[in-house]
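[Help] Beginner question about ligand-bound structures

Sorry if this is basic. My supervisor gave me a protein sequence and a SMILES string for coenzyme A and asked me to "get the holo structure". I don't really know what that means in practice or what format the answer should be in. Inputs are pasted below exactly as I got them.
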Amino acid sequence: MGPHLLETERLVLRRWRREDHRPFAAICADPDVMEFVGNGSTLTARQASGLIGRFEKAWDEHGYGLFAVELRGTNQLIGFTGLARPGFMPELLPSVEIGWRFGKAHWGKGYATEAAAEALAFAIRSPAIGEIVSICQPGNVASTRIMRKIGLEFDRRGTDPTCNREVVVYRLPR
Ligand SMILES: CC(C)(COP(=O)(O)OP(=O)(O)OC[C@H]1O[C@@H](n2cnc3c(N)ncnc32)[C@H](O)[C@@H]1OP(=O)(O)O)[C@@H](O)C(=O)NCCC(=O)NCCS
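Answer (accepted):
No worries, everyone starts somewhere. Holo just means with the ligand present. The predicted complex, written as structure tokens, is below.
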């Protein structure tokens, strides 16, 4: 098992592939998925592909990034989780952000928590990663619940300057 291929009971976390572009575009075109992401706008297929390109570039540059998540035994992308540099809130740097986004058909089964816990374990054993935070909009109750379930604690309120929406920041206690 390579360092960028992780397995849980039900899921595989891996680097992104060509075949992920179409299902990822469908996830990001869903207004329910995007409700609490930035200003809540859905993405075009081109924007979603651009994001995958940025995820892969981050992996190459930092040695950590956002994993494509698939169900074990399928080749089906269901979402992402993993680590990103929260450059949109520079006051949080050099902390690294853990985040997630899953297709609606796969909500409510505990996949996001299962994947995020594995990504957090990856972050904790990565020498390049120090403090770990997670950021979400206060209405995003499911994300707040995941943050608490994987062991993060409330740190502070803030504003996402890219969309002027309020956010809550959670942090992994030392
Ligand atoms: C956030 C997201 C990944 C959660 O997916 P999920 O499949 O519901 O996640 P899980 O099943 O692992 O766990 C979610 C937890 O939140 C709870 N939850 C889910 N929706 C909820 C809601 N509307 N109100 C209250 N609790 C909720 C679940 O009950 C579960 O907690 P529990 O195990 O204590 O019962 C999914 O909703 C998503 O992809 N949303 C869009 C993208 C997004 O907002 N990403 C984060 C941006 S910061």
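A couple of things worth pointing out: The helical segments are 21-28, 31-34, 45-62, 111-124, 141-149. The beta strands are 6-7, 11-14, 66-71, 77-84, 96-102, 132-136, 153-160, 165-171. Feel free to follow up in the thread.
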